[in-house]
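User: For documentation purposes, I need each entry recorded in a consistent format: the amino acid sequence on its own, followed directly by the corresponding structure tokens. There are two entries in this batch. Please keep commentary to a minimum and don't merge the entries.

Assistant: Recorded as requested. Entry 1:
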Amino acid sequence: MTRFSVAAPALELLPAAKLDKALLQAIRSSDHHCLGYEEVQGNPALRKQLARLAFNWGGIVQADEVVVTAGCMEALVMSLKAVTRPGDTVAIESPTYFGIFQVLHSLGLQIVEIRSDPADGLDLDHLARVLQTQRVDACLFVPNFSNPGGSCMSDVRKKELVQLLALVEIPLIEDDIYGDLYFGKSRPRTLSLSTKRVWSCIAPLCPSHWRRATGSAGRFPDGSGQPWLTIK
């Protein structure tokens, strides 16, 4: 039975023996045998490796810009808390993953839904009209293989989206959980490739009990150069 309610690969497709070997190697090579707490921002060696992987999606990320979280939903919560307050309005695409609604409601945030096309993704014209008629404090979109529509925005449209929000200085959170599920020759690029004003939440496809996500910090659009989220 195929479960469409969760984003997890079939267990028979996973290299269980290699994963077990890698886990044992990590435990043996750890100075504290992985029994102690890691740094708040995440394991330094893991953050360096994730920064190297940024080349796969066309980005340049420094290890100190990466935050490791316990899954993509935690990364979204941290990102939203960094750029919004209870009562603020967040624009999301429609349809979208039901968990995003749950997160926004739990944080006391209002929602405005932006139409999306099954082929082209987010309707940028609709978004532009909404921005002209009502206040939007942040945007949260899934540009690569959105759930449940499966659309993937082109690089041109991604750039247009970033430019549109940069003009009105609205923070943009990118949920790139499915970016690695491509069948072409190269991975779709992320929105953060075009600017440092995007907070990218990226979760590698792995067993659910191993689930981790990474956040690549953006910068406030006020010229201060301060990150949207500072973790010390």
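Entry 2:
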Amino acid sequence: MADSEKDTNKDAQEGKGKKDKAKAESGPPSPMKLVIVGAVALFVAVLGAQVAAPLLNRVIEGHAKAAPAKAEGEEGAEGAAPIELAAADTEKPEKKEPVEPAQYVGLDPPFVVSFDEQDGTRYVQLQLQAMARSEKTIEEIKKHAPALRNSILFLLNGYKLEELTTLAGKEKLRGELTTKTNEVLAKNGSQGQIEELYFTNFVIQ
């Protein structure tokens, strides 16, 4: 009987020792474990950041490149419209009034003008053809021929012979004759005008 009680007490003490040991093992972690766990967590965090950073940068760069490209596309679309409109405007054919065919009439007979020079009297003989673009104007030229011839002769007498020997002098005379004859026509109530006067004969003797 005494032996069984001793065994019972021994077993109870052994069980209590095991429980105390288990409590000691399951108690708060030691500082060394905390340091190791912290170091592992920091390493994982740094490694994850190094892996994720390039991916994040690529995403950001992709958005940054896409935004200017979109803006340029919109600006290009906006800028293209005026160019297309301008091209459409320039492609419109200009409406031109049909030009009437040229008609000619001679201011006959030839004009003869004398010039007193040191070596004697010199003569200039010239024939003129008037060009207009309506039959009515041609009839007005014929009708007012005396007034036209009078103004032409006075204009010729205002020149020096040496002026009429050069091409520039002849062109100057032709231009002034055209202006003068149109003034005469307008003064006499004509609505038409002489477009050009041509020399068909020009002789200096």
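Summary note for entry 2:
The helical segments are 2-25, 31-91, 135-143, 145-157, 161-164, 167-187.
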